Amino acid sequence: MTNQIPRVEDIETYAQDIVDTVREPLLMLDITLRVRSANRAFYETFQVTAQETENQLIYELGNGQWDIPALRTLLQDIIGTSSVFNDFELEHTFPVIGRRVMLLNARKLRPGSHAELLVLAMEDVTQRRRAEEEVAKATKASETANRTKSLFLANMSHELRTPLNAILGYSEMLREQSVRRNLQEFGDDIEKIHAAGKHLLALINDILDLSKIEAGKMELFLESFDVSGMIEEVASTIHPIVEKEGNTLHIERAADLGVMHADQIKVRQALYNLLSNAAKFTHQGNITLKAGRELMDGSEWIVFRITDTGIGLSSGQIVKLFQAFTQADASTTRKFGGTGLGLALTRRFCQIMGGDVTVQSVLDEGSIFTIKLPAIVRETNLDAATAAVTALAALTSAEDGNGDAKESSPSGNCVLVIDDDPTQRDLIHRFLVREGFRVRSASSGEEGLRLARQLRPIAITLDVMMPGMDGWSVLMALKDDMHLRDIPVIMLTMVDDPKRGFTLGAADYATKPVNHARLAQILRKYSCPAPPCPILLVEDDPAARGTMRRILEKEGWNVTEAENGRVALECIERERPRVILLDLMMPEMDGFEFAARMRRRPEWRLIPIVVVTAHDLSAEERHRLNGYVETIIQKAGDSHEALLTQVRDLLNDCAPPRALPLPETAELHLPLT
Amino acid sequence: MNHPPPPVPKILLVEDNEMNRDMLSRRLADRGYLVVLAMDGQSGVDMTKSLLPDLVLMDMSLPVLDGWEATRRLKADAVTQGIPVIALTAHAMSSDREKALEAGCDDYDTKPVEMPRLMEKIETLLRKAGKEVPSPTETAL
């Protein structure tokens, strides 16, 4: 018995038993896709019998209801080439059981004693998918609910504020009247109504701010401002509160306090909150505000230290200090007033700007609150510290470099900003001023050209999309004017969304046919330290490429050619050129997409691009280009900060002091093509 | 007694909220100003043209024509462009402030108004325009 060779029937029974044990429905098919057998799970799942299934072609099962083109293709692929497929998800209406989601796996069995067979395994994942859909739906619903909540809070606080303003206004009027008519006893009561109303208003404002922070909806309005000036404003507002308790306010400002880039309103509010706290908890004592610039972990911070000689805090109180609605002591609110939200808000304000508030205190002796904020707050404060370091390093070097020069040459050394949008203009303006440039701005192309002729700026930033004369027209006019054509121009554009801006960074522009002298003149600006230097020529016309190459080689450049933007990108990958000559209209990837992609690589974005294009861009072409810029913006919007940093770097790179003016008269006209 | 009474400055208040209109107009009247009222931007523009007030206080969110557009129209008209306009905005957002100044407003203030602050702005603009400013002693009851 034991050594007997197993009979074929036994093996098949054995195999069938195993197959029947599997909980997934299985179908065994031959290579004509006819069902040889199925397992128990198959019959149970699809509620069919063996008679209805065996020896049927798979696509004839259930009166053709199993005729699923996708499945048939997959199975035929297995027979032909692939021999296996995994996890194909199929949603289909099956006979009897209805619509189901099945996860399919199939494999061709190794040839052996049996004819060639396929095994198709089907896992019913309908419930799992439905559950996942439910989860997605629930997540979406909760997100919607959260948004609705935020909206509700915002509306609610507006609705609450309107009647409250009436209460405040009328009680104020009654108070004025009571003073005039000498009705002191009414005056006191009216004063209480007014004070309660003001407290309620403060609470509503604080709750709204807190809920905005919780919902991640608190937006930062970053601007550059003079720290010293802001302190003065806060000090004058806080003065009456400080004097009320007979306190004296001392202000100590470091000499290098300068300018910080942050949300001014929030910084001011944080300072105000801490100072009014200090004043509230100190009686006939001293309150000192010290402000300074400190270098910590390699980056610059603005530090405000508020010291008082007040009641101080126990260590137990300190722990609870920054939590919403918990003043150090429940009785404090009654005794000292305040919303109990001030410190929590102050801390969150500082945190969303990448800083923090800390406290040291000794009971009955006084407290020291310290606000630390990055000198340059970034919109994305994830890597706030590192970003601030680079920006500051560049800033200090720019100041060291041309600080004196800008004082001694009042008319020269200025950058002209041409942009029709006042907000963007102002943003770039302020940024460049902070970077140590003198800046003039123009709100239209026409005005820009006029100012350019009058001021001869060292560089121009030019908005692409402007009503009337657009950026391209301005660029052409600039490059047509022999007195202006050497001024580097940075093309940039921004859309309303403050997070989206884009620079094409065109450093120069030449029209075709390019003459030898003009090209040589342009290239002299990007002089090569050790010739021959690599230059990349991106141009689709082979004839034009040939002529340009000869000129360039004569000028001592090592030329690499690319017939479109895509090839050009590959070339830069291999060898970084010193300058790029770029045609705009090319097949496959045109000049604009190329420039856009290049500018996205930080290590490439300072390579000067000289745009070489047909003499005049028609209105239609300009329109196309504008549309193109818009699509680029939609694809990859740079953040404001990234954009501004890029503008600064381009400016520093392409606008060196114009110590050696180039001869403008020695022009020879040697047509290229 | 021999002097003719000084001319009373005329302020046009454009505000759609009834209570705000009532409060502000009475408080200005208390301080010796003649106050004329408009309830939407369009009538604000029309009344400025016909009455030529010494100053306009303009709410920004107004029906028919908003305060920004109304101001733009006043500043585009040779007859009215010299009349100072103070924008009143509900939110202390810096973008609102910039929008108001961009529209041509000479100054702005936020609501709820603080009378001393607003009065200072009104008086500064009137003086700059060479107009008489009522002195507080004359108006105190």
Q: What would your notes on this structure say?
A:
Chain A is of the alpha/beta class and 673 residues long. Helix content of chain A is 48%, strand content 21%. In chain A, helix 6 (126-180) runs antiparallel to helix 7, helix 7 (184-214) packs parallel to helix 12 and helix 19 runs parallel beside helix 20. Residues 381-412 and 655-673 of chain A have low confidence and may be disordered. With 141 residues, chain B is an alpha/beta fold. A 5-stranded parallel beta sheet of chain B has the order 2-1-3-4-5, with helices on both faces. Chain B is globular, with a radius of gyration of 14 Å. The model of chain B is unreliable at 137-141 (pLDDT under 50). The A-B interface holds A 162, 165-166, 168-170, 172-173, 176, 180-181, 221, 223, 264-265, 422-423, 426 and B 17, 19-20, 23, 26-27, 30, 92-95, 98, 102, 111-113, 115, 140-141.
Q: Which features characterize this protein?
A:
heterodimer; A: 673 residues; alpha/beta; five-stranded mixed β-sheet; 22 helices; 48% helix; B: 141 residues; 6 helices; 5 strands; globular
Q: Largest sheet of chain A, described in full?
A: 5 strands, antiparallel
Share in helix of chain A: 40-55%
Q: Largest sheet of chain B, described in full? A: 5 strands, parallel
Strand content of chain A: 15-25%
SSE class of chain A: alpha/beta
Q: Report how far the terminal alpha carbons of chain B are from each other.
A: 19 Å
Structural class of chain B: alpha/beta
**Total of helices of chain A:** 22
